[in-house]
Write a structure and sequence with these properties.
Layout (H helix, E strand, L loop, with lengths): L1 H21 L9 H9 L3 E11 L2 E10 L3 E10 L11 E4 L5 E2 L1 E9 L2 E9 L7 E8 L2 E8 L4 E2 L1
Antiparallel strand pairs: 1-2, 1-10, 2-3, 3-7, 4-5, 4-8, 6-7, 8-9
Length: about 150
């Protein structure tokens, strides 16, 4: 009986290894595909690291990446509740004149603790002083203003 129990523990431990490995946060740009795009589009990275608290979860806006062609929002959500997910499409982006920019594509990954995503938005004008991210998810609302000045080039 003791050998059987140890065998079950070892098998379960081996099965948990892929789950643990996929829960490790990805790189700064989600993966090498997005990093190549950022380098090819002459990107400027603005580190944000601001958190929105939604119920028992947190949405963390990690960075805004402004390029000649697009604006990318790198975000993640952290939730300890099983089955909770977040639609990153509910984050709207506006410039300092109030114009809304639509997201066209993105890529996300589910993690053991929540998920992470990079979302691509339309290009903002070069004279834009700040962008505003607005979260509207059911009856929850939040807003974050991010200055476009500063940041580091890749």
């Amino acid at each position: 009986m003791k050998k059987f129990r140890r065998t079950i523990i070892i098998i379960c431990s081996i099965l948990l290894i892929p789950i643990i490995l996929t829960s490790i946060p990805s790189g700064k740009y989600l993966n090498s595909y997005w990093k190549k795009i950022m380098i090819g589009e002459n990107a400027k990275v603005i580190e944000v690291n601001k958190k929105w608290k939604i119920d028992n979860a947190s949405i963390i806006i990690q960075r805004v990446i402004i390029t000649d062609k697009h604006v990318y929002i790198r975000a993640r959500y952290v939730s300890l509740e099983i089955g909770w997910s977040f639609d990153f499409g509910s984050i709207e982006m506006y410039d300092d004149k109030g114009k809304r920019y639509f997201n066209s594509t993105g890529e996300g990954r589910g993690k053991l603790w929540g998920g992470e995503e990079i979302t691509q938005y339309e290009k903002v004008p070069k004279d834009c002083k700040e962008i505003t991210l607005r979260l509207q998810c059911y009856d929850r609302k939040a807003e974050l203003k991010i200055p476009c000045k500063g940041g580091k080039n890749i």
